[in-house]
Amino acid sequence: MYILIIRHGQSEADILNVHEGRADFPLTNLGIKQATVMAEALSSNYKISKIYSSPLLRAKETAQSLSKATHAPITFEDNLMEFNNGLLAGLSREEANEKYPEPEVRYPHTALYGMESMINFRSRAEAILSKIIAENNPYSTIAIVAHGGIINMLLRSFLELPLNSSIFFSTGDTGVHLLQINNFHRRLVYSNNTEHIKHI
Class of 2-197 per CATH? Predict the structure, then answer.
């Protein structure tokens, strides 16, 4: 099985420099163009049979571009939504830092300011990744369209990294990660490929 994990294109929150998380911003015009180019690139290189997507607008719009190019159906999964950042959602970074300062120590079980804890975030990633792997043909190629935070957690889950791992996987606008599962062996083929948008 091949799993393509894709981040959404540029959103309006990126332009406004606000905390996004569960705030539901759409793609910008550039984001729409990025999603279109990404979809064309993937459709010409992979036979995608199914797309899973976060229902948040920026991911939904990106997934719809991919579905249009590949004719693959989309299943929207709440567990693919971005980290629940609680009261910070939609706030400017300056306002958030003033109202909701980061504590010196944050434990994995801690859920501050209406956020989900890191334990719950990891559990959510484990659950949706397990579900997606279990319900698809082991010889298929599927796509997941989501957000930077949950993508990072999905990759940690896939690679069986510990909860407190300091390893972070960056993902640019419409960045693509390719995973492979073969006879229970797991392989990260490539990470954060954004070649398709270099000319935009």
Answer: alpha beta
Backbone angles phi, psi at 183, to 5 degrees: 50, 45
Tokens in use for 139?
A: 């010889």
Token pair for 192: 């954060």
Q: Is the pTM of this model over 0.90?
A: yes
31: helix, strand or coil: helix
Cα–Cα dist 70/111, whole Å: 39
pLDDT in tens, 127-149: 999 999 999 999 999 999 999 99
Integer angstrom CA distances of residue 24 from 21, 54, 109:
8, 11, 26
Residues of the chain below pLDDT 50: none
Residues in the chain: 200
- For the chain, state the CA radius of gyration: 17
Write out pLDDT tens, residues 4-24: 999 999 999 989 889 999 999
Going across the sheet that includes 2-7, the strands are 74-76, 50-53, 141-146, 2-7, 176-182, 185-193
3-state DSSP assignment of residue 12: helix
Alpha-carbon span 100 to 181, nearest angstrom:
41
